[in-house]
Amino acid sequence: MNQNQIDVAPVDNSLPALILIDWQIGFRDLIYWGQRNNQDAEGNAQNLLSFWREKGGRVIHVHHDSQNPVSPLFPGKDSHAFEEFAQPLAGETSYSKNVNSAFIGTTLERDLRADDIDKLVVCGISTDHCVNTSTRMAGNLGFDVILAGDACFCFDRTHPDGRVMAAQTIHDVHLASLSGEFARVLTTANILSAFA
């Protein structure tokens, strides 16, 4: 686990903390990952990030350190880096993980509670893996979570019987399973309107 935090200005804790999960260049590699859905995800995530920065909200970045040397997310590869729009700025916290949950092997929960933050807005990659796991765990830990469903995407998956499950189907099913019990699933536009 590697964490870097530089506090340069007070943040507005009346906003939920915005958690951006795994916006890394390596997820562009569709040969490795397969076909994806939601080509608008990056733009929606960027809109959320710009709004949070403009309002002085708490911004938290999470990135995945794969333990598989073949993975585009293996540390040391250029593809491990954050996308340009999601590069952390001074004062924004960054956490590294090597499992699906942003809460395992990091001090994320402890740091949020130390700052009396109990509300989160989450977006990122992929809907069915790290976003799903982190959102479920946040809900189970008692955080009030909003998931920006249109600021996430995932990839085609192969069923054990050999059927290829379309990324959009995977995305929709996971948003449906998270909705209500673990998070409120909203669009980026609705989130921005709610906190404007």
Describe the protein.
The protein has 196 residues and is an alpha/beta fold. The protein has one domain: Rossmann fold (3-Layer(aba) Sandwich), CATH 3.40.50. The protein has helices at residues 30-33, 41-55, 108-114, 130-140, 167-178, 188-195, and strands at 3-4, 17-21, 59-64, 93-97, 119-125, 144-153, 157-158, 164-165, 184-186. The strands form two sheets. A seven-stranded mixed beta sheet has the order 1-4-3-2-5-6-9, sandwiched between helices. It has a two-stranded antiparallel ribbon with strand order 7-8. Strand 7 (157-158) and strand 8 (164-165) form a beta hairpin. The longest helix is centred in the N-terminal third of the chain and has 15 residues, at 41-55. The N and C termini lie far apart (35 Å).
The count of helical stretches stands at 6
Q: Going by CATH, what is the homologous superfamily? A: Isochorismatase-like
Helix content: 25-40%
Largest sheet: 7 strands, mixed
How much of the sequence lies in strands comes to 15-25%
CATH-derived topology: Rossmann fold
Helix and strand sequence: EEHHEEHEHEEEHEH
Shape: globular
- Second-tier CATH architecture: 3-Layer(aba) Sandwich
The figure for the number of domains is 1
Layout: helices, strands, pairs:
Elements: E1 3-4, E2 17-21, H1 30-33, H2 41-55, E3 59-64, E4 93-97, H3 108-114, E5 119-125, H4 130-140, E6 144-153, E7 157-158, E8 164-165, H5 167-178, E9 184-186, H6 188-195
Parallel strand pairs: 2-3, 2-5, 3-4, 5-6, 6-9
Antiparallel strand pairs: 1-4, 7-8
Helix pairs in contact: 2-6
